[in-house]
Structures are given as structure tokens and as C-alpha cells.
Amino acid sequence: MRLVILGGGGFRVPLVHKALDERITELVLHDVDAHRLAAIRRVLRGGPPVTATTDLDEALRGADFVFSAIRVGGLAGRAIDEEVAHAHGVLGQETVGAGGIAYGLRTAPVADAIARRVAELAPQAWVINFTNPAGLITEVMARHLGDRVIGICDSPPALCRRVAKALDVAKGFDVADATFDYAGLNHLGWLQGVHVGTENLLPTLLADEEALTSFEEGRLFGAEWLRALGVIPNEYLHYYYSTREALGDNRGAFLLGQQQRFYDGDVDWETTRLEREATYMAQERERDSLEGGGYEHVAMALMRAIADNEKATLILNVPNNSTLSTLDDQAVVEVPCEVDATGARPLPVSPLPDHAAGLVTSVKAVERLVMEGTRAAALKAFALHPLVDSVATARSLLDTYTRRHPELAYLS
Ligand code: G6P
Ligand code: MN
Fold it and tell me: Residue 139's domain spans which residues?
């Protein structure tokens, strides 16, 4: 099988490379930046033959799988997203609030163009989208690729893994057969139940203070708040539930310098990776480990289920198709799916709690406005986001971002 990685010069590509198996007989790395491509290629050892190219059409021809992991504007763009948001007193995180909207506005047209090329040159290929904001970008690409594009994130499976471990400790249960009732949008989801047979184990966990605060999300949100909610939120809900405390997080600016030292050849890849993992959400929480969330394993599990027609249940970003009642069928949601050679189909989930359904509906409306691609819609996207509190601020955000990012010229 021919696997193509778009964003092949990206820092986490060696993790994907390490996770590949014999199914992959040809690996193609595509990037718009030849220098980054060369730096990453030098780190790769063993595995299938690798081709590196800056020609998109050449990369895509004959692809069986495409991993799309691009970052439009690079980390410099991410740092600008953050800086401008902070200057306006709002969140700059790359996937949430004003920062996420700026990043989405920059990325949507590029993802749209890529999806068109895939539809034309490799219509049989499965596209696994890692590119953030992942839900929005998957929906953009689905307009051309239908259910051949599937979005992934490591945070829901990582949450389920940590909850399963905490439950093991609390109950001595074997949660291997548990089903996880998780739903929402990417970086905006909630775990509402952990079912083993006819029993829901989540209330047990919520009642056990020690077990509840033994894992990252438990410490991040605190036992009292989790009990009040009655569900376990994805870690990104921190930006909604503790917006004030999260303000000023300048990860983009930090990573810009940290990653540059690797690409300049001054620091080795593994040292750079460990530092990047150690500092991920470090202000918010105490990390359990320096393993990444395991993006590469989610992607490989998905690829295996499709390629080998081996049924698997995975939490993925796919069109809603009546799963969440407040959204239309085309809206991409993040829910457990059954996967096999025919693709991924959402499984039934519990209805979201009211406040969660409200957030999901508002944020999906914002994503749709980002997808429209006009100045008027972009202004509405900023102004109507639940974490931006003024139309005047929204207008200034839009004007400043448009001025600072050449990729946003289409909005002026
Ligand atoms: C997690 C999230 C990804 C995000 C990444 C950011 O893995 O699920 O969506 O891209 O963290 O990590 P970074 O090191 O770039 O802050
Ligand atoms: Mn993610």
C-alpha cells in the first residue's frame, strides 16, 4: 500500500513512521517546505522506501491512504494567532475560540484545494485527517470526499484509557470490554458513561475521590466540578470552564523557538520531542506521562480496520447522520464509530446534557461560518463564538488577523 503524508516535514512524522507496519510498502512525504522535509527525513530509520516531494499531484497519484497533517502558516502563524488574541483579551489556543477561528480561516481553503486534488487524482484513497481544527477541517474536506475522509484526535481515546485505568484501580474490574459513551465535536466532547454489560461504571468513579483525582482530567477539573457535571469532559473543555485561568497561555510562541532549534540542526529530535510533550498543557495539569496522546496509534488502528476489514470501534470525526439531535446529518461530530472496509459509521450515544448540546450547536454554527469564506461570515464567526464577548472586539480581531496573515487576504 502507498501511504502519503501531507505535512511530511512535520515534527511528529517520525512517530507515525515508527508505528508503520508491513502493509505499507511505499511511504511518500509531501511538504511545501523542502528544508523541513529534509530535516525529518534524516531522522527516519528503517521501514518502507521513502520518497520526499514538494509536488502534491505527484504525491497523491496511486495513493491508498493519505494522512493529512498540515499546518498552514506554520508555528509562526500559530504564534501570531495567539499574540493577536491576547492583545484583545481573548483565548489564543489553536483550536478553541478566536485563535481556533483564525487558524480555521487560514486552513479551510487549503484543505478544500487538497480535497479536490485527492478526489481527482486518488478517488479510491482513504484520507485520515489530523489537521486542526480537526472537526472543521474534516467537514471542509468531506464536501469533496464524502465519507472517504475521517478525522482523528488522540484526546478522546487518551481520556478513555485514563478513565479505564482509574476504574481498574477503583473496582478491580476488567474494563477491556467496556464501551465508552463519548460524544461532541472535536476538542468539545464529554464522556457520559462507561458500560460493562448492563452496568454503568462512571458513577462509581465519580463517587471515589481518590480514583477520580488519580488521572489528568480528574485533577484538571477537580472532583467537585466533575460530580456537579456528572460527566467527564475532554481536557479542552478547560478553555470553556476556566477561560480566565487559561488566558495568556503562549504555547505557540514557545513552540516556535523550541521547534526551530531542531529544524536548524541544533538539538536532536528525541530531546525536542520530550520537551514538547512535557510542556503540553503543563500549566493546566500534571502530566501522567511523556508519551504523546498516541495520534499515530489511532491512525494505524483506523487504517488497519479499513485495509484488513477488521471490525473496530474507534472515536472518530465523521458526519453526524442523526447521532446528535441538535445537528444536521452533514455536521462532522466526534463519536464512537464502527469501522471496517466500508468505512466508519457512528454508533448510538446518549443525548448530550443541555449545556453541552448548547455549546456544540453554537460552535458548529461558528465552524459553518468559517467554512463560508466571506468577510461577513468571518465577522459573525468571531462575534458569535461563546468565548468572544463583543462584536467590536470581533471586528478588530478580524481586521488584525487579516492584516497579519497573508493567507487571509481573501477576507479583505
Ligand atoms: C493534542 C491534540 C492535538 C494537538 C496537539 C497539540 O495531541 O489532540 O489536536 O494538535 O495536542 O500539541 P502541541 O505540542 O502542538 O501543543
Ligand atoms: Mn486533537
Answer: 2-151
Give the Cβ contact number of residue 337 at 10 Å. Answer: 22
User: Is 401:87 a contact under the CB 8 Å cutoff?
Assistant: no
Q: For position 100, which CATH number holds? A: 3.40.50.720
Residue 130 alpha carbon, nearest atom of ligand 1: 9
pLDDT at 168 over 90: no
In a domain, 124, yes or no: yes
* Minimal-distance CA residue to ligand 1 atom 10: 132
Measured in angstroms, how far is the CA atom of residue 133 from the centroid of ligand 2? 8
- 144 inside domain: yes
> Does 107 contact ligand 1 (Cβ within 6 A)?
no
What DSSP string runs through 29-65?
A: EE-S-HHHHHHHHHH--SSS-EEEES-HHHHHTT-SE
Query: According to DSSP H, which parts of 95-183 are helical?
Result: 97-121, 134-145, 155-171
In a domain, 22, yes or no: yes
Peptide bond into 133 cis (omega under 30): yes
- Give the torsion sign (CA, 218, 291, 269, 26): negative
Nearest CA to ligand 1 atom 3: 153
Distance (Å, whole) CA 296 – CA 300: 6
Q: Is the Cβ atom of 241 under 6 angstroms away from ligand 1?
A: no
Please give the grid coordinates belonging to residue 208. 471515589
254 close to ligand 1 (CB < 6 Angstrom):
no
For residue 276, which atom of ligand 1 is closest to its CA?
14
pTM for the model: 0.97
Q: If pLDDT is split at 50, 70 and 90, which confidence band does 28 have?
A: very high
- Taking the C-alpha atoms of 158, 161, 166 and 168 in order, what is their torsion angle to the nearest 10 degrees? 180
Question: What is the per-residue pLDDT across 70-92, written as a single tens digit (0 to 9) for each?
Answer: 999 999 999 999 999 999 999 99
Which amino acid residue places its CA nearest to atom 4 of ligand 1? 132
Count up the domains in the chain and report the number: 1
